[in-house]
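Summary of Year 1 activities. Much of the first year was spent building the evaluation harness for sequence design. The harness presents a backbone, in tokenized form, and records the residue chosen at every position. We chose the following record to illustrate the format because it has been used consistently in internal testing since the harness was completed.
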């Protein structure tokens, strides 16, 4: 019997990918490295108390050039206003913590600007990526009262390996990244959606392992299915079908079989623990839905979940109770995903062994996910140690 209906589980609720399509597309396309569709301009600030809104920009071409100082883009803060200016031949889109098209600067053919008001900006964690890009990666800004950036250290040579499984379940070859730090096995393991990000998350684990904060822990990153298949020019697509219950049951269940029957046995031969209390599922955005739903369908196999910016329908096979420990995080600046994550936490309070909800002033972006991932792993590891005594 599935979980009780209500909140995130209400059939009347519009899922985040429908109500915040722009946010969802921006991240999904950025993950896959494909062209970003044009996003709408953020709404102007009104009388309502919203977390983020746009204010009219009075920036002149001369002022924009001064701010750029010969570069292609720049951003700065004035009080609770976050300003961005850029030089592009075509209209750029701001991604990813704040999502909006930009407006042309008067008197110029290639200058663009955007000014947004962010409530409690001093606490914010914002990444700034303009698309089309000038070739660089996203820059980051942290308010003076925001958390400090977590420590990172790239995996040592040989610790991060690439594998390709000729999958009978999927009917195709699919890649994995496996991070296995030095240490005796079997060791705790995190099965990660969107495994292309494995190196980034492994770089967050390594300092904690070396400091003795957590035991040596593996990450097994499952590469996502393609966003767009041959001949497709718009969603639905393979990645969402594999991660989101209700899109395509055949594809969704085949991906589950891929995890259980093909990925996990390989990981365990490499030293991953078979103990359910040492198995975790993790993901962000669509991957968070996959991680949480998989744990709710198979609580006897997985006792830890890290769901970041969760948004999704429940799998109708979910047990309804008896789940392990679940860490949920979301950003105030991703309203639909924020609300969905909070609703999920409310439901799980009576259905899971333990729930931790961590809300930050951030958006639907890798900056939030990378920032909270170490805290999530630390919390799950410490809970496991306590229960083992």
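For this record, the design step produced the sequence shown next.
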């Amino acid at each position: 019997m599935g979980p009780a209906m209500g909140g995130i589980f209400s059939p009347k609720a519009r899922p985040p990918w429908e109500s915040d399509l722009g946010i969802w597309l921006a991240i999904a396309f950025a993950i896959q490295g494909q062209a970003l569709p044009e996003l709408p301009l953020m709404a102007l600030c009104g009388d309502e108390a919203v977390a983020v809104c746009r204010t009219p920009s009075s920036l002149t071409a001369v002022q924009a050039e001064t701010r750029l100082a010969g570069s292609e883009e720049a951003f700065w803060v004035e009080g609770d206003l976050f300003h961005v200016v850029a030089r592009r031949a075509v209209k750029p889109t701001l991604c990813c913590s704040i999502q909006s098209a930009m407006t042309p600067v008067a008197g110029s053919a290639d200058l663009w600007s955007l000014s947004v008001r962010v409530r409690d900006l001093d606490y914010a964690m914002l990444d700034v990526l303009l698309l089309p890009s000038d070739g660089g990666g996203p820059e980051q800004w942290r308010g003076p009262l925001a958390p400090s950036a977590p420590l990172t250290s790239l995996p040592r040579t040989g610790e991060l390996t690439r594998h390709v499984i000729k999958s009978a379940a999927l009917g195709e070859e699919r890649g994995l990244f496996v991070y296995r730090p030095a240490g005796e096995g079997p060791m705790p393991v995190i099965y990660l959606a969107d495994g292309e990000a494995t190196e980034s998350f492994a770089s967050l684990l390594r300092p904690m392992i070396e400091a003795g904060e957590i035991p040596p822990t593996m990450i097994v990153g499952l590469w996502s299915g393609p966003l767009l298949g041959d001949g497709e020019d718009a969603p639905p697509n393979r990645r969402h079908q594999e991660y989101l219950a209700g899109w395509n049951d055949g594809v969704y269940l085949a991906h589950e079989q891929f995890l259980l029957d093909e990925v996990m046995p390989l990981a365990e031969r490499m030293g991953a623990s078979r103990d359910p209390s040492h198995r975790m599922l993790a993901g962000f955005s669509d991957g968070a839905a996959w991680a949480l739903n998989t744990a709710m369908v198979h609580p006897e196999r997985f006792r830890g979940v890290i769901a970041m910016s969760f948004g999704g329908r429940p799998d109708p096979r979910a047990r309804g109770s008896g789940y392990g420990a679940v860490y949920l995080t979301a950003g105030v600046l991703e309203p639909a995903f924020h609300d969905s994550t909070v609703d999920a936490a409310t439901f799980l309070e009576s259905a899971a062994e333990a729930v931790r909800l961590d809300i930050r002033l951030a958006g639907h972006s890798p900056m939030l996910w990378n920032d909270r991932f170490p805290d999530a792993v630390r919390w799950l590891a410490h809970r496991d140690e306590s229960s083992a005594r």
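The chain has nine helices and 17 strands. Quantitative recovery figures across the full test set are reported in Table 2.
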